[in-house]
Amino acid sequence: MIHSKLSAAVSAKENTSERQLQPVSADPAQAVLKTTRRDFLKTGGMLSLSSLMGTAALMTQSDDAHAAVEWAEHFQKNYRLMTDQEKAESRARLEKRYSSEYGKQVTVDTTDAQPGVLMGYALNIRKCIGCRRCVHACVAENNQSRGTKRAGEKIEWIQVLRMERGKFDAGKMNQGYPEGLGIQVGGNAYTPAGQILEGQYHYNPEKVPEDDANYMPIACMQCEKPPCVKVCPVRTTYREPDGVVVIDYNWCIGCRMCMGACPYWARRLNVTNPVLPKEEMNPVTHYLGNRPRMRGVVEKCHWCLQRSRHGRYPACVEVCPVGARKFGNLLDPESEVSLILARKNVFRLKADLNTFPKFFYFYD
Amino acid sequence: MKKIATYATILAMCGGALYSVIAAENVAEQPVQVEATKEPVVCFESRKGASEITQQEIKPGWPNVKCSPTTGAALWYGDPFEGTVPMGKMPLLENIPDGHALVKPRTEKLALMPLCSTACHNGVGPQFTPPTLPKDKRPTPIPTMEAMVPDLKNLQHGRDRIWCMDCHHTTKRNMLVDNFGDPVSFDQPQLLCGKCHGDKLRDWRDGIHGKRIGEFTTGGKKRWFTCTECHNPHNVQDGLRNKGFVQLQPEPPPQLAKGMKDAKHELVHPVPH
What we know:
The complex is a heterodimer of chains A (364) and B (273).
Chain A: H1 2-20, H2 28-31, H3 34-44, H4 46-61, H5 65-74, H6 84-102, E1 107-109, E2 119-124, H7 133-142, E3 159-164, E4 167-168, H8 182-185, E5 190-191, E6 213-218, H9 227-231, E7 237-239, E8 245-247, H10 257-261, E9 268-269, E10 284-286, E11 298-299, H11 305-308, H12 315-319, E12 325-329, H13 336-343, E13 345-347, E14 359-363
Parallel strand pairs in A: 1-10, 2-14
Antiparallel strand pairs in A: 2-12, 3-6, 4-5, 7-8, 9-11, 13-14
Chain B: H1 2-37, E1 42-44, E2 52-54, E3 57-59, E4 62-63, E5 65-67, E6 74-77, E7 85-86, E8 101-103, H2 113-117, H3 143-148, H4 164-167, E9 176-177, E10 183-184, H5 189-193, H6 198-205, E11 212-214, E12 222-224, H7 227-230
Parallel strand pairs in B: 8-12
Antiparallel strand pairs in B: 1-2, 3-4, 5-6, 7-8, 9-10, 11-12
């Protein structure tokens, strides 16, 4: 029954989108299959619904303002389904709560994707020196948890992978399987070069780059066909019309399906209560971007929506000392990313998976 | 459930009270401490020694820059345009609206600059008879200069195929020089470097080589990093490393996963060699 409804809805939607040649998410309020989510709640969600009611009942008993705000938050709609009015209310609610929580004026931006913009990113893999400044700029900008006491309390969205240069060595010509006869079944005269799965994330030499290594930063690729979006059972992670894959944290149930689906290890779960000291908190936030998260929700890179929706470079781009990180509008032929795509040798990570990242690696 | 919540509230309130006591003490002590211990936090940008920023609050709770406590590197820009001036005329960048292409001037960073035009041997003027202009551009040791700028003892640029006068103006020593022999400001080194590194200049102009910060949109307000903010013109080889960018101390590594004591496992290859 659910099945037939779903497929009917899907084909109806496909018909219209085919004619208009528009990405499904370009008009999110319409693209979302309302029946589907209702069905989901109906069948699988009875239990969680009742537990929500319980929470609400508990909350209403106290007349604490903080609790009242949280209560309202529990019952707000998925961001994509909110009217402008509801967005404004939600925004006011959050600004009030965050401002009192962090002791400064916090803003929660709700700026939509700008028409004519499709964001893209390019990283010069030859220049990267593995200094990790991007990683820490990202944390300074995006209000990640930065505790140190318990495992999982420190969250970083960018990972920098160290890869050994590797080399072939005449002295090892005879090594391999079976031992001593390597040459017969395939020589083993190498030490590994550029093997991702043997990568090192925790390197900490006095100086980088090291002579015998190169480096490869990885974060969310903002795929055009994001596997994480496909698997999200509550549809709280989705692709925005300007190409960025975002999360409505309030609707995330922490099931980690997206983490499993992402081939780029880009998503992080707040396993603990986030540790975000007041003085380090960045008060300029976006609803779908860097606003403070809660325990049990997933987060990831969103190309600094709070900046990029207002034309500003993401934080990682600005601090890269070697200028390896490039960002811009893919629909603008003059932008630096467009020029890189036009002129340089570029590749996408794991292109064989057909995720179509808008994050490109290049070299010159 | 309700009981727990009540306890939690009481606890939280106690904590809050305690905190406010501590906070009050801090406030009382602060004025004295601020005077005594508040040293300005300064961080460097790309190349160590090439450019720095002093951290300060530009709005309540909003610093101009955040510096790394580990390495002293700039980690976040609250104001990407601090200390910048218009880039000046650049061929093929004329379409950028006025005031949207900015650079940090190099001149004020160069300690010897005031000397270079006056006290220095410009080679002209009554005190220079006969003129001391170099006869040709070939490499010769210049002990006076080596004493002042140690990098010049062993000029690591061009592998003996270029020398001072390929870059510095012969008679105007506070200027660099372009292909026509015309003077070029130290604040526009791209016009100098570009005469030999045309491919890099082209990429730089398009935002592909080097770095721009601020607004990413075409025509948006940007600070452009100049060539010398990243490259030391007297040493672009760094000895045996043979690299155009010097090494830096990295920022700290990520947190270890639960139950992990160290990251030695990363160094073990699953396939024997």
